[in-house]
Amino acid sequence: MSLLTEYIDRNMSVPDLEKELMELIRQYNKSRDTYLFVYASALTKRIPLIAIDQDDYYTINDLLRYKKIPRLDFYIETPGGSAEAVEEIVRCLRKKCETISFVVSGEAKSAGTILVLSGDEILMTESGSLGPIDAQVRIGRSQVSAHDYLEWVREKHTEAKLEGELNPFDATMIAQITPGELKGVNQSLKFAEDLVKEWLPKYKFKNWTVTETRKEPVTEQRKTDRAVEIARELSNHTRWRSHGRSIKIEDLEQIGLKIGRIDDDTALRDIVYRIQMVCKLLFETTTIFKIFATQERKLFRHAAQIQQGPSLPAGTKAVEVVELKVVCPKCGKEYDLFAKFVDKPRIDKDFQAMGARIFPPDGKLICDCGFTLDLTGVKNQIEVQVGKKIIS
Q1: 72: domain range?
Q2: Based on the domain organization, do 23 and 35 belong to the same domain?
Q3: Strand boundaries in the chain, DSSP class E
Q4: Residues 276 and 309 in one domain
Q5: Average pLDDT of 173-186?
């Protein structure tokens, strides 16, 4: 039976899935005699906040505050993000942990790959993948690949030289690019490569003292040379063809990286695949888009789609009730809600007669399709604006 079928058949609620995740982390720690940190993003939710950012560093630092961890395993699933944030996360982890192993069963792309390459050990399942190293940069209102952006600019430069002109659309876009912006994008790309060149000899190759076949001594210069080769290969987008390309265990071994194969350990394999599946189900059935979890603590980030914000009349201190409309991001169903600040049964009667629901006491609205919308952030916003607590 597949894990997805098993969990569906168990008909687990969101609290059940949360408990299952914590239990799996405990099982993992017992199996590996280590301390596991789960960091996962909802790759299918197309919102900018799923990427690695500075807030992730603050959250990781907070969850590991006051801890000294001999052996940390870091489960990661991410589309990439900020190389600067990755540098901060690595500094944080290295201050608290003696050795770090990164665990990849899904995708750890772009800046996620850079983070993984800072580990003493890389553990991967057959389904796991890294990606070409790169940095995401902000151009206008969008986050884009630094490499892809520079490649596009070069293509347009070549096209202009050959044709003598650009089409009106490309010409308009190029006209908005400043020399400073181009330099910044190029620096971001070089910065990502430099981190890999620094971290591989320092951590991954730390205990590499002799070659595997000839048993020759490995010098510091040889470690540095190997790191440069690997950084060059992983930043060679001509080879990988796509910024989103999945680079598997065999590909990584070909370019000189030693990878621990999780699938060779039956018990560990089952735990890791279950962690991946539980995270997937939490993402698919709730508004959660990012998970941070250890065996003691967990923190979930939510994003709820609000079709129409709360209606707040003038003089909010005297407000007795507010209305709002929310939309289920899974099935698109709309819900009219009301939140009241005074205990008047008439309010319930009037709004329910119009088909509205009372704001859920715990801030969790369960859609008819089974999806759980977390509205705690909306609740906090309303209470701050009104200056009163919502009552059930």
Answers
A1: 3-136+182-302
A2: yes
A3: 35-41, 69-77, 97-104, 107-108, 121-124, 129-130, 136-139, 142-145, 260-261, 288-293, 298-302, 305-308, 321-327, 334-340, 357-358, 364-366, 372-374
A4: no
A5: 59
> Computed from CA positions of residues 209, 211, 215, 219, in that sequence, does the dihedral angle turn out positive or negative?
negative
The reported pLDDT for the residue numbered 317 is 55
Mean pLDDT lowest among 17-31, 53-67, 156-170, 184-198: 156-170
Q: What is the pTM of this model?
A: 0.75
In 205-265, the DSSP E strands lie at 260-261
Read off the tokens for 346: 């008439």
Go through the chain and tell me how many residues it has: 392
With CA atoms as reference, report the closest residue to 323 among 351, 349, 297.
351
Please name the residue that has the structure tokens 């979930």: 300
Contact partners, residue 76, CB within 8 Å, separation at least 6: 39, 40, 102, 103, 104, 108, 112, 115, 116
pLDDT tens digits along 261-315: 999 999 999 999 999 999 999 998 888 999 999 999 999 998 765 555 565 555 5
